[in-house]
Write a structure and sequence with these properties.
758 residues, alpha/beta, Aldehyde Dehydrogenase, Chain A, domain 1, 3 domains, eight-stranded mixed beta sheet, six-stranded parallel beta sheet
């Protein structure tokens, strides 16, 4: 705990040797000393006269938050000229003679000409007001700020340079935020030929170069340059093909076309890039980002420090492989080529992958053994996750069988005609199945997911990005290698990409221009996080698997314990395992009820009593904290209901629309349950564990969806397809079908072509 002005705050364990910039965004959270450069476009209003107060207040709040974490924050700010221009304009209007104002009339007063204001005078008038504003804002967070005005000479004169350095270090030591600006009231115009001249010299001719010089001089860890654009683009922002550059490396300048500078300020993007590269060479990491966008400006600085993918990050370490953006583009191009293959060729790829799973069994199990040993040594995985991580010969054999099922059933998946209509004479319309595009599948601790999902993507002609957990890195690597070997037989190796970069899941979920559908495979927490993080990309999946089994009064004694045991105990960590057991009230204190309880005790299942069940018992198990609990272990809740109708109502109120079961011999009761329960999977006298793509005969699944749009339940090939419309005409125009036109609509349904059932 550190204290300043009697206000305690938590300090972070931040320290590192300066001299080398951070290689990856994820390391930025370790930045101790940070310079935030606020460009003129960030600080000023759109009319260039006055300050954007709301935006400035948000920036001060973020800087204060980081300062109170124990970081050392410095601000290089523009805005004095704009603030001064506002004040001087106001003073000029007030200084007009009263007589002139009275005789000129109100309308003429509004149109009075204001002389062109000289920038140095504006700066002189605005500097004190700008600093007073900063002081007032920082005071709200019990933080003191101090102003420092500099010129280029202060860096070239050795004594002044040492004085400046000492002053800044002393302010930082006292937990004061230095606010630095060029002294525009006296600064001379920039020398025309003065530019960046190596690591020891930089001409301070704008606040970009000032921030870079200051960052290197003070050995800062991070320089954040806020402007009015999202970051650095490969061509001028706004042009058709402009793409935001996520990471910029020294030497990439040739691939960038710079546009004009911002509406205000001295420098443009080219000046920012030059200053950023100079700072990077001096050991300071740099991020250029948008500080004006209303949706992100309130957290842009903290997002950058947290390592989120915001703006353009400058790095000296160029990764060996492609970036995730490049992988996304490769997956889209490869997916389109894949979709254009003949069905037999796509099936051949899947058959080859299935054979590889058994032929290369030893190599796969050896890689998996490494993952298991590392996970056990680090102790970071719970037992259910370790089970998911583990591969075996039987698992690989089952995977191979499932893949062959996919290959056999995929012959007419892509390009299948599902509707034909004759719109008019010689004008025929078809609706055909097509791939969705590029899928992003994020999975935890389950390497068997990789070949399953890859096979489904191949069968449906989709490009695929895979993001596996680091705990399965060795297993995923060899399985992806085998997948690419299979794809190579028809030249579509790039269609399936494994993301190995340090990309955060939240950042991947923002790539809405590259990804068409996100499919999470993992814990309910993972799914919820992805659903929250996804920006403009649909997410297919379920956040919880709260599955119910309802035991009716007419249930068979022989069936009840078998179905309940299988639903709960066969694989308790699965999303389709029983979590809540609903029992009809009339079954309490019967031999059947006793058999259920005895079986659960033998299987070592911990029982939690629902409120109603607890009220019937003198000594009850621990009462459940919530009826909406997914245990994922040998635990379950038991609750009592008075009827099948009440069971349905309970499922709708507390369930997750995943899988729900009724056990009864009464067909009428069963049909009522089947028709009224609004879940993705509803079963009669069968285990919840049948809710699975392989068991449904889909070969495999990319997941189980509880969504009500597009795909629901276990999602196989069909769920990875969408449709497009094909219209074939002969010189048809809509005007021919008007009231006085020569043609009429027929809208006749045409027979569908015969499906390939082999």
């Amino acid at each position: 705990i550190r204290c300043w002005s009697n206000i305690p705050f938590i300090t972070m364990p931040l320290s590192r040797a300066h001299g080398k910039s951070f290689a990856h965004r994820s390391e930025l959270k370790h930045a101790k000393r940070i310079v935030v450069k606020l460009g003129s476009a960030v600080v000023t209003r759109g009319d260039e006269c006055g300050l954007a107060l709301g935006r400035l207040a948000s920036i001060v709040e973020q800087v204060s938050m980081l300062q109170n974490q124990g970081r050392e924050m410095m601000i290089v700010t523009s805005g004095a000229v704009a603030f001064g221009k506002q004040r001087l304009r106001h003073e000029i209007l007030l200084s007009q003679s009263v007589r002139q104002a009275l005789h000129s009339g109100q309308s003429q007063l509004k149109d009075m000409a204001i002389p062109v204001l000289e920038a140095r005078a504006c700066a002189a008038a605005g500097q004190s007001g700008l600093m007073a504003l900063y002081e007032a804002m920082f005071t709200q967070y019990s933080i003191c700020a101090a102003q420092i005005l500099v010129t280029n000479l202060d860096f070239h004169d050795e004594q002044k340079r040492r004085n400046l350095n000492g002053t800044l270090h002393e302010l930082l030591r006292m937990n004061i935020v230095p606010i630095i600006n060029t002294n525009d009231a006296v600064v001379p115009p920039p020398e025309p030929n003065s530019d960046l001249q190596g690591v020891n010299v930089i001409s301070v001719k704008d606040n970009d170069s000032l921030a870079a010089r200051l960052a290197v001089e003070m050995k800062t860890d991070l320089l954040i340059v806020l402007s009015d654009v999202e970051g650095l683009f490969d061509s001028p922002p706004g042009s058709d093909d402009a793409k935001l550059i996520d990471i910029f490396y020294p030497g990439d300048q040739q691939s960038v076309t710079f546009g004009t500078k911002s509406r205000v300020g001295m420098g443009g993007m080219e000046a920012k890039v030059k200053a950023a590269l100079w700072a990077l060479q001096g050991g300071t990491s740099v991020v250029i980002a948008n500080g004006t966008h209303p949706k992100i400006s309130g957290h842009v600085i903290t997002d950058i420090v947290e390592g989120k993918k915001v703006g353009t990050f400058f790095s000296e370490v160029k990764p060996a492989g492609p970036t995730v953006e490049q992988q996304g583009e490769m997956a889209r191009a490869g997916g389109r080529t894949l979709a254009a293959l003949q069905p037999e060729q796509r099936a051949e790829i899947i058959y080859r992958l299935a054979d590889s799973l058994t032929d290369q069994r030893e190599e796969i199990l050896l890689a998996n053994k490494k993952d298991l040993e590392e996970a056990e040594n680090k102790g970071r995985l719970a037992l259910p996750l370790l089970k998911r991580l583990s591969l075996s010969t039987s698992k690989l054999n089952s995977l191979a069988i499932g893949l062959r099922q996919i290959a056999a059933s995929s012959q007419d998946s892509v390009g299948r005609v599902i509707r034909r209509t004759r719109i008019a004479k010689d004008l025929d319309l078809e609706q055909v199945t097509v791939p969705i595009g590029v899928l992003l599948v994020i999975f935890e601790s389950r390497p068997d997911c990789l070949p399953q999902v890859s096979a489904l993507a191949v069968a449906s002609g989709n490009g695929l990005l895979l993001k596996g957990g680091k705990e399965a890195a060795h297993s995923n690597q060899i399985l992806h290698h085998l997948t690419q070997e299979a794809l190579s037989i028809h030249g579509v190796k790039d269609a399936v990409q494994l993301v190995n970069t340090r990309e955060e899941v939240e950042d991947l979920c923002r790539l809405d221009k590259l990804i068409d559908l996100i499919i999470p495979r993992g814990s309910s927490q993972l799914v919820r996080n992805i659903q929250k993080a996804a920006k403009g990309i649909p997410v297919m999946g379920h956040s919880e698997g709260i599955c119910h089994v309802y035991v009716d009064t007419d249930a068979s004694v022989e069936k009840v314990t078998r179905i309940i045991r299988d639903s709960k105990c066969e694989y308790p960590a699965a999303c389709n395992a029983l979590e809540t057991l609903l029992i009809h009230r009339d079954l309490l204190r019967t031999p059947l009820f006793d058999q259920i309880i005895d079986m659960l005790r033998v299987e070592q299942v911990k029982i939690h009593a629902g409120p109603k069940f607890a009220s019937y018992l003198t000594f009850s198990p621990s009462e459940v904290k919530s009826l909406r609990t997914e245990y994922g272990d040998l635990e379950c809740c038991i609750e009592v209901v008075d009827s099948v109708q009440e069971a349905v109502e309970h499922i709708h109120k507390y369930g997750s629309s995943h899988t729900d079961v009724i056990i009864t011999e009464n067909e009428e009761t069963a049909e009522f349950f089947l028709q009224h329960v609004d879940s993705a999977c509803v079963f009669w006298n069968a285990s919840t564990r049948f809710s699975d793509g392989y068991r449904f005969g889909l070969g495999a699944e990319v997941g189980i969806s509880t969504s009500r749009i597009h795909a629901r339940g276990p999602v196989g090939i069909e769920g990875l397809l969408t449709t497009k419309w094909l219209l074939r005409g002969d010189n048809h125009v809509v005007s021919d079908f008007s009231e006085h036109g020569s043609m009429k609509y027929l809208h006749e349904s045409l027979p569908l072509p015969q499906r390939n059932t082999n």
